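Hi R.,

Here's the chain you asked about this morning:
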Amino acid sequence: MSEVMARPVAYSIVDCPDGRFAVVAVSASGSIHRRGGLLTLAEVDICIETLRVLMEACGGALVFWEGDLPGTDHMCAE
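And here is the predicted structure, written out as tokens:
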């Protein structure tokens, strides 16, 4: 039986104009996932740690992407 390695997921933290934050994750396949409306950086940290645990359970890595992730324009809109 061959093992399938999960591909890494890149994430970025978006500082929204309304003062809240969003965490945006992009999978290797290009699908984009967003968790917005985070009021504090502590909430951002919890969100990222939850994502890291999920990725670890799948055998994948979570990678911080500094700056804007390609294809994630307008990620602050609700």
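One quick note: Strands lie at 9-15, 21-27, 32-38, 62-64.

Cheers,
M.
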